[in-house]
User: Which sequence fits this backbone?
């Protein structure tokens, strides 16, 4: 259980902070809500007190003997400001201490995460951007705002991410520190495949695999929070899209292949979709079927019918990863995944090094799947191999923490931006 200070700024999106508070307390954290006076015009103190089980105050003059502005900040494991308005970012950047929340920000030793929400013009204004840069330079996390519907009929960057996304990112910072959400992927375009392909046998049946898509989802969520423009080519995953991520749904290996080529080259091809610029990083986290049925029946295969198959003939699917390596653009990094087990011919890393050389990727993320680990679990443990011979062991952790460690390795290897 961690001690979290949930700062709430005065914007319409403050109502979402009640749901975020609920998610944090349900995960077992002790949350102290510190709203600004204007936040309480949107959501009443009683709501925050009931959901947190803790008193709520806005001013340093409340509860003076407790010296709350010092004690609350000093004892926190995380200060999460949601929503962070333009005014709150400005006051925090200026180091003001004119209410309990800003005073708490000055006394906190722990990671601080701001989740901005405001109108697009206010977010893009140079004053706000300077304040964001100042706060980031001092080590605070300032998440990029989601793009979407704002308070009125308009839409654009400035929307508050959904509470579930913020709660997941808060857990990541609690376990891995503020560095896990460094803005080092700002300006980068990242294309990630996730999930498991389905190879049709007839209109109702397919050959599939057990991939849950959770690691690919985590990679997408963390990359977007670190500033990247993210496309997630998702094979048969029912999870909601992480905030800031465009999901391209696919089913078969062939559909995945077409989407990955279009998205990583920036050439929309015949689909007419996709972005106009190539990807800086291409990650193949999907479990792509190596084989597909040689023929797909046009109607359902029936028991006892003339077309009842006695066996299924399989043909090889193209290796999408190898194709993407062949089509790699200058400066583009291609990352593969490998699920390996040790055997009489070598241990997991020996097999993985051979695969890195065979596939020609810049990095290979190696999962040890001995004893049925990984699939569908929130926890993972990987080693990241690079062509320079390095092997970065990522300790066991939640898939978001593993994703952050993978992005650290990728980020170190990206060419400098102009
Ligand atoms: N992959 C791919 N296209 C395929 C099969 C796999 O792009 N048809 C990608 C996966 O997304 C993953 C990597 O290749 O990033 C490793 O896949 P894996 O199945 O472990 O490797 P294989 O080449 O199939 O090697 P083997 O089965 O011999 O271990």
Assistant:
């Amino acid at each position: 259980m961690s001690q979290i200070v949930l700062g709430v700024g005065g914007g319409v999106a403050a109502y979402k902070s009640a749901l975020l508070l609920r998610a944090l307390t349900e995960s077992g954290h002790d949350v102290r809500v510190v709203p600004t006076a204007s936040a309480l015009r949107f959501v009443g103190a009683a709501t925050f007190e009931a959901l947190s089980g803790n008193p709520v105050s806005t001013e340093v003059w409340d509860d003076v003997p407790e010296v709350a502005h010092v004690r609350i900040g000093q004892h926190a494991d995380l200060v999460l400001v949601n929503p962070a308005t333009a005014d709150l970012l400005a006051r925090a950047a200026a180091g003001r201490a004119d209410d309990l929340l800003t005073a708490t920000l000055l006394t906190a030793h722990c990671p601080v995460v701001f989740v901005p929400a405001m109108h697009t013009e206010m977010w893009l204004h140079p004053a706000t951007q300077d304040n964001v840069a100042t706060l980031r330079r001092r080590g605070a996390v300032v998440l990029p705002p989601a793009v979407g519907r704002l308070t009125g009929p308009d839409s654009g960057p400035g929307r508050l991410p959904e509470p579930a996304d913020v709660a997941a990112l808060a857990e990541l910072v609690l376990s891995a520190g503020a560095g896990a959400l460094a803005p080092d992927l700002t300006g980068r375009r990242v294309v990630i495949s996730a999930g498991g392909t389905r190879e049709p046998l007839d209109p109702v049946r397919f050959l599939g695999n057990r991939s849950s898509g959770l690691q690919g989802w985590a990679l997408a969520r963390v990359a977007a929070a670190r500033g990247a423009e993210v496309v997630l080519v998702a094979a048969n995953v029912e999870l909601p899209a992480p905030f800031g991520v465009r999901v391209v749904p696919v089913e078969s290996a062939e559909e995945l292949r077409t989407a990955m080529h279009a998205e990583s080259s920036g050439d929309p091809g015949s689909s007419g979709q996709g972005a106009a610029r190539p990807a800086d990083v291409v990650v193949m986290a999907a479990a792509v079927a190596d084989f597909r049925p040689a023929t797909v029946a046009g109607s359902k295969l029936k028991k006892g019918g003339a077309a009842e198959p006695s066996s299924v003939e399989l043909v090889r699917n193209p290796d999408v990863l190898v194709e993407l390596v062949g089509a790699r653009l200058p400066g583009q990094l291609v990352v593969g995944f490998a699920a390996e087990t040790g055997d009489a011919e070598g241990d997991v890393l020996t097999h993985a090094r051979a695969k890195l050389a065979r596939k020609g990727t810049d990095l290979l993320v190696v999962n040890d799947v001995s004893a049925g680990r990984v699939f569908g679990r929130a926890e993972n443990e990987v080693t990241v191999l690079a062509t320079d011979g390095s092997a970065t062991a990522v300790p066991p952790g939640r898939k978001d923490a593993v994703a952050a460690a993978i992005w650290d390795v990728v980020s170190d290897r990206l060419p400098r931006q102009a």
Summary: Residues 3-181 form a domain with the Rossmann fold fold (CATH 3.40.50.1950). The first helix runs from residue 15 to 26. Residues 253, 284, 286, 288, 290, 317, 319-321, 336-339 surround cytidine-5'-triphosphate (CB under 6 Å).
